[in-house]
User: Fold this.
Amino acid sequence: MSKILANDGIDSVGKAMLEAEGITVITEKIKQENLANELFDGNYDGIVVRSATTVRADIIDTCPNLKVIGRAGVGMDNIDVNYAQSKGKMVINTPNSSSQSVAELVFAHFYSVARMLQLSHKDMPSSGAAKFNDLKKTYSAGVELKGKTLGVIGFGRIGQAVAKIGIGSGMKILAYDPFIETAALDLEFFGIGKVNVEITTGSFDELIAKSDFITMHVPHKSGTPALIGKEILSRMKPTAILVNAARGGVVDEAALLDAINNNLITGAGLDVFDNEPTPLESLLNHPKISCTPHIGASTAEAQERIGVEMATKLIEFLKK
Ligand code: NAD
Assistant:
């Protein structure tokens, strides 16, 4: 009988699918420093992680019985994938399940910064009753998304899901992806049916210069240079709002703070940070930055889809 450690948890539907196939699923959280010993002593066939647990070469070397490493999510930067594969381990992730959740969070950040909700959410509880009319003045300079240009850098699964929401919101889409020329997007309108829209990707420089709202959905390898740094930020519209829900490191955080403080861009939304889980305080406290603690894929719907996708792949691998 196979045994899996789901160290960052697994959705109950996926867990039930595994158990129905006779696979034991342990969801007790093991501290990172004890993980190798636990995997070795417990004679596990596999480990499933989200982003909190890392599976590096030391764990892979210490646990020869480990056959499969699962990442319940997309980015595999917390796993030494190449090393694991070189040691004959199967590495799987669930790239198809979280796109809609991440895309919706991107828009939550866009709407928040466009209407200064991140700040008004703080002011209203403390002074909404005493200073209602003052706050009304402060928060009356918001902007709309409809009719604006949305720049999407990286036009894979999440980038395309973002573009669909943008099109539905009446935005013009500029997409950049060096590996994708065109993408056919199926937009489903409730009670109306499907509309197919073809988007052709274009120039990075044009996107940077013309977009009112910019979001990046690219992979990132830690230690590599930021895709968006000082020089690129300086070419954005002063009214631009930037969201990073890809990975910390895709945007240079110091350059971003500098750009916002010097009014080179208007604000930002951040779901991911350089130094998780201890992000820079000056980003968290900034009035023009809307922050969330890496929750892009963390909706009930996405977690269930991730659990089912992971369970399906694990069953296929362990039962073959
Ligand atoms: P994907 O592989 O479907 O798409 C990534 C796209 O980026 C590809 O089309 C690729 O061609 C393109 N790309 C690569 N390098 C590029 C570059 N330099 N410039 C422009 N485009 C480039 O991946 P996805 O499912 O869309 O996920 C994107 C990223 O989102 C993941 O790498 C992951 O780190 C992140 N993510 C974050 C969360 C979260 O919780 N915030 C959740 C899921 C995924």
